[in-house]
Amino acid sequence: MPAKTLFEKIWNAHLVHQEASKPDLLYVDLHLVHEVTSPQAFEGLRVTSRKVRRPDLTVATVDHNVPTWARNLPITDEVSLKQIQAMDKNAKDFGLIYYNMQSPGQGIVHIIGPEQGYTQPGMLIVCGDSHTSTHGAVGSLAYGIGTSEVEHVLATQCLWQAKPKTMEVRVDGKLPFGVTAKDIILGIIGKIGVDGATGQVIEYTGEAIRSLTMEGRFTVCNMSIEGGARAGMIAPDETTFAYLRGRPHAPQGRDFDLAVEHWKSLPTEPGAKFDRLVELPAVTLEPFVTWGTNPGMVAAVSGKVPTVNSFQSEADRAAARRALEYMGLEEGIPIQEVGIDRVFIGSCTNARITDLRAAAEVVKGRRVNAKVYAMVVPGSTAVKKQAEAEGLDQVFKDAGFDWREAGCSMCLGMNPDFLKPGERCASTSNRNFEGRQGKGGRTHLVSPQMAAAAAIAGRFVDIREWSKNQGG
Amino acid sequence: MEPFKRHSGTVAPLNRVNVDTDQIIPKQFLKRIEKTGFGPFLFFDWRFQDDGKTPNPKFELNAPGYKGASILVAGRNFGSGSSREHAPWALLDYGFKVLIASSFADIFLNNCFQNGILPVTLPEEQVQQIMTRAQTRPGYMLSVDLEHNLIEDDHGFRATFQIDEFRRYCLLNGFDDIGLTLQHADKITAYEKKRKPF
Q1: Interval B160-183: pLDDT, tens
Q2: How much is the ipTM here?
Q3: A21: closest CA among A160, A155, A198, A149?
Q4: DSSP B122-153
Q5: Chain centre to alpha carbon of residue A318
Q6: Where are the extended beta strands (E) located within A314-472?
Q7: Which candidate from B35, B105, B182 shows the least CB-CB separation from A40?
Q8: Which residue of A lies nearest to B85 if distances are taken between CA atoms?
Q9: Interface check B58 vs A, CB under 8 A
Q10: pTM of the entire structure?
Q11: Residue A39: which of B88, B91, B34, B82 has the closest Cα?
């Protein structure tokens, strides 16, 4: 038997039907659902009198539209309210596992899946959301699908998939001081480009990846899609098992030990072949800041906004010109001279407890710059509760941050949290597309530590210098 | 889904790379719970001025020669980012039946096939030929024949394209995936019987 990759093992274990010149029919272990990409799928089921085949494997929540103000206040956006009510009704009518707005388990779907222990190694996981790649961090195969495919999975628990190619992204060596999981993934996307991994599943390997906490691994896998990847995954190990042990919907007791035995058989075997290898030594990584309008437009915090002529093709020069104009930036200026108006700490990329701890560490005893409005939106209601138990909320509030309820919030501004035209934001989220955080808003993607430091300084600062000089 | 066999129409050029689905249909329009009616919001922030009503004269698709276009030619990696199927719904509702680019993002590509839109992938040089013709001759038309994987104009441009055989078959016949899958219901049940709890 030739040596197999983690990806191949999971793919093969989920084959329901295979025939020449067709995609494979795969079985889905966990289908995550949220309110934005599902209403038309449920409507499709109603029209065709179909049921949800496995409501017990279908976990739903509301995250994109929910306001982050107090949960007892009304939802003022009637269209958002309608979409949330549709999710309530669909979950009830079709008997899904459901974390509604008032549930202590509510949160961003990609945060609560792992948090509740639904997300497990070896699983095939889908969701009508491109950031589903997050779940690959435990050693599962997880990817985003469209609404038609959501309907298909609801009705059949299966999905037709053409087998993607595989890419190993190896980050060898120890992470330098001040460099986080977010910087690893921004560095990777900066290197391969936003379509560098189209049609491919990435497995992240190497010492720097292995040394990450589970939360850091979620951050890396979360942004796989920003490099165009079908999915991103990391082999399960002791860090994974320790994270999952005791979670409400993970196997319990002896079942857990049996599960671990199985999970240990999943990692890529020595000598297994990937279609492509990309190497990015950890020593080359720095804290990064995006300067443009896609996540591949990345600069080191110690560097400068690139010049248009530094790009090879006319298409890329045109894109850079357009991005600079939209972002209101001069080419060639130092990143640390870029001032900001807003800070958003949140999203399925960076709103887990360790992200909030890292940001709180930076802001502790300091004040948010007078010209900056900064907010923290925990990724889930449980993360919020944990942070409050640790007193992090007080650290943020004392520094002048707004402390909010859980949801997707200003990562995409479907709820009342968004940028005004021209406002510049240091954001821990995953997309800096035009208008993503609000029409005319200008987004710079950074790590939680870098966002926190920018909130205090009112501009981008090098967290490495900051920590040395400020004793933080 | 309507079967797709062949289509002729006016080509609109969008000479930009990495056009993401946030641009194709901005988030404020994702709150609708229907599949239809997204066309008026296609490329909303590019298409209209700040008042949200006045067409932006600088936006390519607003030029008079591209009115009624049903074929869109764009730069590489079209449809990147969010999985929102609202993007193909908006393109379709606006009137686009065929998209041409040198590459498409994975999820977006799947979503197009699910809705009877034909995404045609051609080498960059051929995309640029079409782009130039569409930019310099408003009203420029192409004919696309899915039965013969052929795309051509009346001025000597002719190219064949590659497409996943299964997706082609579904488009040609207007098949919806769920119906096809349910033909394998016994296999799904058999899989479920041997499936491990973890």
Answers
A1: 999 999 999 999 999 888 988 999
A2: 0.95
A3: A160
A4: --HHHHHHHHHHHHHSTT-EEEEETTTTEEE-
A5: 29
A6: 342-345, 373-376, 402-403, 424-427, 442-445
A7: B35
A8: A146
A9: no
A10: 0.97
A11: B34
